[in-house]
Amino acid sequence: MPGESFQYDFDLPADHPGGTFWYHPHIHGRAAEQVFRGLVGAIVVEGDLDRVPEVAAARERLFVLKDGTIDASGRVPVATMMDFMNGREGQLVTINGALAPRLAMRPGEVERWRIVNAGNARYYRLRLSGHTMQWIGSDGGPLSTPKAVDELLLPPGKRAEVLVQAGAPGVHRLSSLPYSRGGMMMGGMMGRSGSSATELTLAELVVQGESAAMDLPTRLAGAADPQFGEVAARRELVLSEAMGPGGMRFMIDGRVFGHERVDIRVRLDTNEEWTIRNATDMDHPFHLHTNPFQVVGADGRLAPSGAWEDTVNVPRGRSVTFRVRFRDFPGKAMYHCHILEHEDLGMMGVVEVA
User: Fold this and answer.
1) Which of 144, 154, 241, 269 has a CA between 20 and 30 Å from the CA of residue 55?
2) Distance between CA 156 and CA 109 in Å, rounded?
3) pLDDT for residue 187
4) Which of 110, 132, 207, 203 is nearest to 168 (CA)?
């Protein structure tokens, strides 16, 4: 409550994965406003990956990607109806509160970048000009081996860890490339999704000075066991939208969120396979609290990356299937669209593990 404080104590299990996590308010109906105003932060859990020699030798940077809007009077404007329909994107895009910061590295130097998308609705399609990034970690912890990537897509709520080895001297751009996630215009017509449709310079990397002799790892450590065993249940969840008497509604399985209701009941220490089907006109980042999952391909095999995730983008008109283990945490947890305006308008449910 206003003027009060509360202390949270966390007892992490010995096998909890290391990784990059974050926190934000989750009051239903107010989450979008409070996050847009900046109530977010990052949490780093150290683990076996931090002891890999090449990773331990790398300088570490934490990037919290956050957009916002401030009007001429220095205030945050009230969200519009279209903000809630499409998800709100800010006019200013920052890294750790700074506009287009300059970073400095030496040729050959290796850095570890932890990246958090802490925005309401903005997607980041990340690219570092003149460089290939080594993807080493996702939402649910480390990968088993580095993956060379030219781009990374971070929908709202998602995190990534990469190693960057500085290349030739010069100025290089960390950019977010155009990405169309769909959207709506007045009257229900389709439109583009605001500033995610334009290329943005997030930071400049200045490579200069004497060369550094540093290596990239070929193997990592700390990845969770990918073995699942028997799948106890398979479910399909359908994401939908509709205009109702009170305005736009975003739903899962035809229902808006009800805090008094349990939507899915799961037995503890079982594995399940969930298919998330997007029947709407825009992408939705699906987020499951507490229990990370692995995406399954059309052939029924786990995704080649082996990444454990808690947020996955579900493109409009398509489906994503993942397998999840409910092992250690009985009780209730939420699943929802991480475009926070859509969550506030009902695209959220409750799973109970017992």
Assistant:
1) 154
2) 30
3) 47
4) 207
